[in-house]
What does this fold into?
Amino acid sequence: MDYQWIEVTIEDHVATVALNRTEKLNTLSLAFAKEIVQVFTELGSMSDVWVIILKSNARLFSAGLDLEDAMSHGLFGGRPKDMLNFPIENRVLFDCCHVIEECKKPVIAAVHGMCVGGGLDIISSCDLRLCTEDATFSLREARIGIVADMGVLQRLPYIIGQAFTRQMAYTGRFFTAREVERMGLVIDVYPDQGALMAGAMKLAEEIKESAPLGVQNTKEVLNYSRTATVREGIELAVHKNMVLLTSKDCLESMKAFAEKRKPNFTGE
It folds into this structure.
């Protein structure tokens, strides 16, 4: 897994993905977004990976969209035909959020420093979010006269509700770690980056206590159920269970319960 702006380590079923476009504060260029798509696609297909932690190697999490790169690709001030074609020709910018949300493995975002615009799009695509005390979050698009279009307006309401989403989107101001904790955007706040990563790893270890296939299929059902009826969601869950009940891990959990021991899951 050789990338220009991403570092990946895998240890004991936990993959740590570090955004490493440090000189540009992890602003999203098209090439950077393409690497994000590639790494999460690859990790999603690896049976040895059960949980993913997403972090930043820069002095902040992400400063949002790389405006200079976007301008060079004709995003601002182009001809109407070019502007209409931009989302189609450069869809990788949008796919870098979709691929995180659709990744089979649960993704934990560990945020420090500023998380702006496209960075907020990325973490709203993750399953769970943690941050440091100094972290700040801003949905900036309205401040520059546009609408956020990478999925944050669609995903955030399911995480923090309509009122808080509208507050963040309409004001465009920076929200503190404690404010977004109250909203439910992050589930824990840590004093520094060392404590943050320890907390992220602890959460990953807790997730690993569950059967990997159970977790992965639960994620799929949860994602599906956001736009499905209750009955449709239940039908998918039952369908999943008809398969999972025959898995080695499910049988192992029953055997471990009978033997009063901790199950040894293999992801099969």
Summary: Residues 212-258 form one domain. The first helix runs from residue 30 to 44.
